[in-house]
Amino acid sequence: MAQLRQQTASSRWLIVSGGDQNELRDIFRQRGLDSLFNGGIFGSPDTKDHILQRELAEGNIQPPALFLGDSQYDSQAAMATGLDFVFISGWTEFKGWQKYCGEHNLPHIKTLAHLLY
């Protein structure tokens, strides 16, 4: 992940999760990963839709922007806010992801390493 972060140094990275925001921030800080996410780490009680809309309105997310996710909800939230989306299959528990990605013409990769150039 550090190599990808280096290659995208001018980009803002955010976490937008359904998990508890305070717990996420603690875990990422404990693992020394919080500094990678200069745009912030966000989670519940706010929904992903609300977080994305708010961060777009506040200018923290500036299009063009890419949402990397592993769920149907992630792709729907990205589409609803006009963000590009890439499905990461190696992270997902979504059993029908191949069919869903095909039906919605969504690009997909197995891991973040596939984004390295």
Q: Can you summarize this structure?
A:
The chain is an alpha/beta fold and 117 residues long. The protein has 5 helices and 5 strands.
What's the alpha carbon Rg, rounded to whole Å? 14 Å
Oligomeric form of this entry? single chain
Order of helix and strand elements from N to C terminus: HEHEHEHEHE
Largest β-sheet summary: 3 strands, parallel
Protein structure class: alpha/beta
| Percent of sequence in beta strands | 15-25%
**Major sheet strand order:** 3-4-5
- Helix tally equals 5
Task: Note the gap between the termini.
Answer: 13 Å
Number of E-type strands: 5
The 3D shape can be described as: globular
| Mean pLDDT over all positions | 96
Q: Low-confidence parts, pLDDT < 50 over ≥5 residues?
A: none
